[in-house]
Design brief:
Length: 120
């Protein structure tokens, strides 16, 4: 997760985070950093991810999935922007309901198409 938290492109960061949530929810008793990278990351990012994990002495091979730990970590995703606007969503909702687009000036445009449920 630390690799994703530090990812410089906010659109890819959101995509890879959502993809990781999907990967971790697969009906499997094991997980693999290599499998996640191969299934979801672009080639250049796979290489960066592999180097990052190697620097951290983290294995790319398969290991048992700790469901309690994973459930606690992936219940929600929060995206906080520099102007103190945040988007919070339950697992699986970002990819379907939030469109992110990098702008030429370095900002990110976020578009949400939905009905307003509540304002607090």
């Amino acid at each position: 997760m630390q690799f994703l938290f530090a990812y410089p492109d906010p659109v890819k960061k959101a995509k890879y985070t959502q993809d990781l949530n999907s990967y971790l929810q697969k009906n499997s008793h094991n997980i693999s950093a290599r499998e996640y990278a191969n299934d979801y990351m672009e080639t250049a990012d796979k290489e960066k991810y592999g180097r990052y994990l190697k620097e951290k002495d983290f294995r790319m091979s398969e290991f048992p999935k700790d469901l309690d730990y994973i459930e606690a970590k992936i219940k929600t995703i929060t995206m906080v922007f520099t102007n103190d606007i945040s988007i919070v969503g339950k697992k699986g909702t970002f990819e379907k309901n939030v469109k992110l687009e990098n702008q030429q000036d370095g900002t990110t445009k976020a578009e949400i198409i939905s009905t307003v449920k509540m304002v607090r």
